[in-house]
Design a protein that fits this description.
2 copies of one chain form a homodimer. Chain A has a domain at 2-172 and 216-243: 3-Layer(aba) Sandwich (Rossmann fold). Chain A is built from 12 helices and 12 strands. By secondary structure, the first copy, chain A, is α/β, with parallel strands linked by helices. In chain A, α1 crosses α7 (218-229), α4 (88-107) packs parallel to α5 (144-161) and α8 packs across α12 (305-316). The model of chain A has no long low-confidence stretch (mean pLDDT 94). Chain A has a 7-stranded parallel sheet with strand order 3-2-1-4-5-6-10, sandwiched between helices. Chain A has a 3-stranded mixed sheet with strand order 7-9-11. In chain A, strands 8-12 form a two-stranded parallel ribbon. Chain A starts with a strand and ends in a 10-residue tail after the last helix. Chain A is 39% helix and 17% strand. In chain A, α5 (144-161) links the parallel β5 (114-120) and β6 (166-172). The interface between A and B is medium-sized, with 22 and 22 residues.
């Protein structure tokens, strides 16, 4: 089982790599794992792992990493929403053109590999309050990032229809709780308001407590990618796009869990800092999802937000929550 | 009013050119009209018209034709469905990449031009018998051509959302009656069964008489493009895609009109030649359309199929129907 992860040195790519090295795919261990990215990540100290460093939008690099023996490609490399909005050409180049390069390289492999592509609920536009989003709901992106993901989805579906690859698109809910630093994404606060206080730092909250979010933990996101890698696609037909099951929570509910896990001092570290721009974007995201199909295919959401925070503390804080500052 | 038509030497491009030269757009005459294509068409003998010959997927050519003074671009250049299916790379190159080149050249113009882009109902997949298709119905292409048109639609919407162009997508029903020769399109018979008999030639009909079609005449298609060129887009918001109003007819109804216009001898020139492959494709096309929005925006369909055939006789046969062969 030879596996390529593009964006392999990123936060989800590294977690996926660890899972693949430990558990493999459907019981089959990874024999070779290539992590393609713009820079190397941590040393795995495992002879199966190698980094391939280059530009994912460079055809020569892509042809070099999609070797003939690759069985599975996890195509995670992307420019995030804020960056795609700020640098239009870069977004097109990485989120569309590089995706096509990867698909095309796979097409010219003798055994057309499984391709697992991570897309986003940003492909959707504002919907009526009573509308439920399913896998077949019309996309209507309102951001360059969303448009680029929707374009790459169309390519992957068509390359699969023609038998050039055996592809699956996973549309990720907002990932929370992300480790690391705040980023430019409008959803950055959805991790920040938990991550920062549990580490003893303050965190501004740009939206009202009543704001609803649709969340998936990093742990479940990685599980979903592994599930997708061995899914029987004959049952999918042309319906290659799957909205992953998230959980629907409000910011107030998230903060209540924060208080439970970190105590009132942690909760007090989150301060209201209304940002109408962020509020507008977040309010436009769909809240009601039908994920029966995803669940039927074996994808799991999180039990509740407490489970998400507990997993974060375990995976990213070594089980330690910051003590009260006195 | 400086106008560029890509695919300008094609059948619809030439008709559009004539209309623009005679009537202009919203009462404003075309002062300069560039017809870009791979080869020249007929001589217009009009100092306003020039041909630009080149490859629409060549960035240098596109940058050369989208000059700074262009006010309107009609982007009609495309690889048709049969060809896009047979030559995947060519379809991607012309139907997606060239569209992006055109949009990008417009983006770098000081006055971002109006772009009218012709798409197709091939962006849709099979739908339930009782489902009505509207402008916001989810695309689900089942052909490379349909995927490519859907991708170009996403690009045009995004370039418009960002203010880089002021774009409109017109999704054309099956155009009937097309002049010229049969082509590789599955819908070729929808013109052939009228055009050939009215010229005294036999025409095979690959589908049962009960087969339903959704048609638009070339005359109305050209009118729609001109309407789109001066449409007030502020009313459209992000909803830049319009399914043009067609008429729903069966093949039997078309053949009855043929008999009315051309006589029983013309009708007798159409012979049943069942082609399960064509039948399957045509049967998968949606038949029920909601075009209230298009009509509200000023787009007109044909009155009925008789009106379409009368227009064909007038426009393409100089008013003459082939006499009975004796």
């Amino acid at each position: 089982m030879n596996i390529l992860i593009t964006g392999g040195a990123g936060f989800l790519g590294l977690r996926l790599a660890k899972t693949l090295l430990n558990d493999g795919v459907d019981g089959v261990a990874a024999s070779r794992l290539v992590l393609a990215d713009r820079a190397t990540g941590p040393d795995f100290d495992d002879p199966r792992v190698s980094y391939a460093i280059g530009d994912i939008a460079d055809p020569a690099f892509v042809n070099r990493i999609v070797t003939d023996d690759i069985d599975i490609v996890f195509h995670l490399a992307a420019v995030v929403s804020g960056q795609a909005e700020a640098d239009f050409d870069l977004g097109l180049r990485v989120n569309i053109d590089a995706s096509r390069l990867v698909l095309n390289a796979c097409r010219h492999n003798a055994d057309h590999p499984r391709v697992v592509f991570t897309s986003s609920v940003a492909v959707f536009g504002p919907v009526a309050a009573d509308e439920t989003i399913g896998d077949a709901t019309a996309v209507d992106p309102r951001s360059s990032y969303g448009m680029e993901k929707a374009s790459a989805e169309l390519l992957l579906k068509e390359y699969s229809r023609r038998g050039f690859v055996d592809g699956i698109v996973l549309r990720l809910p907002t990932i929370s709780v992300r480790p690391g630093r705040p980023n430019q994404a409008a959803s950055s606060f959805a991790s920040g308001i938990i991550r920062e206080p549990l580490s003893g730092s303050g965190s501004p909250c740009p939206v009202p407590g009543s704001t609803g979010l649709w969340l998936l933990s990093p742990r479940r996101a990685v599980e979903a990618m592994v599930t997708a890698a061995s899914l029987d696609t004959s049952a999918l037909g042309t319906a290659r796009v799957i909205n992953l099951p998230g959980i629907s929570v409000t910011v107030d509910e998230m903060l209540a869990v924060l208080a439970d896990v970190g105590g009132p001092h942690a909760r007090a570290l989150v301060t209201a800092a209304p940002d109408p721009a962020v509020e507008k974007i977040v309010a436009s995201w769909p809240r009601s999802w039908d994920h029966d199909r995803a669940v039927g295919l074996g994808f799991c959401g999180d039990a509740n937000f407490r489970a998400i925070v507990d997993a974060f503390v375990e995976d990213d804080l070594d089980g330690q929550v910051a003590a009260v500052a006195v």
